[in-house]
Known about the structure:
It contains eight helices and twelve strands. The protein has helices at about 5-30, 45-95, 105-125, 180-185, 320-330, 335-395, 400-425, 430-434; strands at about 145-150, 155, 165-170, 170-175, 190-195, 200-210, 220-230, 240-250, 275-280, 285-290, 295-300, 305-310. It is of the alpha+beta class.
Amino acid sequence: MRISTIQAFNTSVRGIQDNYSAAMRTQEQISSGKRLLSPADDPVASVRLLQLDQEASKLSQYKDNLTAATNSLTQQEAVLNSVNNILQRVREIALSAGNGALDAGGRQALAQELAEREDELYGLLNSQNARGEYLFGGFKSDARPFERQADGSYRYQGDEGQRSIQIGSSRMVAINDNGKELFVDVPNASRLEMAASSREGYIAQAGVVDEAALYPGAGFRVTIHREATDPSLPEDADTNPVIDKYSISNADGSPVLDDNGDPVPDYTDADGNPLRLALEPNADGNYDISYAGMAVTLSGNLAADDHFTVGHREKQGVLDTVRQLRQVLENPGEADIDGQRLAVALSFSLQNIDNAIGQVDGVRTSLGARLNVIESTQLENDEATLINTQVQSGLKDLDYAEALSRLSMQSIVLQAAQQSFVKTSNLSLFNFLR
């Protein structure tokens, strides 16, 4: 077989170039520390690395989400701890206000502290995080959730949503609690909302007595009247004396109506006005009045044109509970009457405060459970990240011992190819003709 000179040269040069390229590639691997310099080096490993990179990105995002969730829940827990401390102090004030030896000045001092606690509580319920988001607004985290109205009452303006964040491939965790569920929907001890417009009269007891007769939005107003037993006849101490009467109407004074929109006969006269009924005392000298499944007991010295309003209210916000207690302590009255009114108000307030404390404690327990979930998920995330890193390292990182040995061998082979080329290049007839 004939081998031309040009063929020999090409074969030798190609061998040198291949050996040189192999050595250079090994040196590049050593300098970069990577086994895979291009997908062609190991297509299967390259695809697997892409999958692992995507998983690593998810794990990194989960880590950021876990940090954000921890910060949010930790801040909310701190706020709720402060809220609980304030409610405990309000409860102590309510107990102190029940001390019979306390005079009007002492009650005013307690009312002043209650006003400060009320403002502090109002501020906590409108707390914001570092990003300026309101903690207790539900999904409406960009608007103040609680607003103080002109009459001193409070209104919740957030929604009932609960924001969640993904902390794992199939795991979500709630990072806030809405203020309505936490601070507004607190069980009301009396289940009623009451207001009195009377100097010496007050509502001693109130409650729901007939669930079947109770309906949403139920409410009524009791008005006290003083007139002759028979208003159509002249007053006479013996035959037609002046007696106490009462009438039941809607809160605005209009006649109460039935389901068909017609006046209720038992409480409406022939002219369509609230019917005036005789006010009969019970065995204790108080007055029991009931309507629409609700019953109240009036006490004290009732006077003409006194008004007592009662409405169905299963829930009462904690801010309104504190406000009502403060208003009772701020308004002085006759010692005996005011003491009895205060006792009733304190009884309902203490129960409502205890309900609010229980509600806050329940959410604090939930926060602890969520923080535990975050902690365990963080450990799982760290382990998954470590495994991911180890697998990636096994696929793409270089074995330096093997690479250095291979480079040494490739260098020897390259030198041998070069020396071989030098010798074979001298195999020419011209060398023998000289």
